[in-house]
Amino acid sequence: MFKFVFHLILLSSITRSGQSQYRDQHWRIQERTVEFNLDENSPIGTELGSVAAPVNGPKSISHPAGALTTVSELHYKLGAPSNLFAVNEQTGVLSTRSTIDAELLCLKAREQDVAEEYPGKS
């Protein structure tokens, strides 16, 4: 059994509601850490759990210009491309994109360490 720890940065878009054809966008950032356990060699598509969290704070806030501002949508995505994991953009469910093999991951980590320690010698 593996334990994976993910540090999440939730970036939520808050858009001004009203009659204007232009939308004022403001961003709110929240950080948290989640842990998931996964059996080695679990099938591709195995769900680890959800990274979705309720947005802390009000669903609507006062805009500096006086208009009401509401949270319009949340979308989830990984901060960097991953061959191992995928996240459902709408639901926040995290799943595997490939089979997780401990020996292969450790081998890749060792190769990367050697390449960083001895550049040009691979």
From TrEMBL:
<protein>
    <submittedName>
        <fullName>Cadherin domain-containing protein</fullName>
    </submittedName>
</protein>
<feature type="signal peptide">
    <location>
        <begin position="1"/>
        <end position="20"/>
    </location>
</feature>
<keyword id="KW-0732">Signal</keyword>
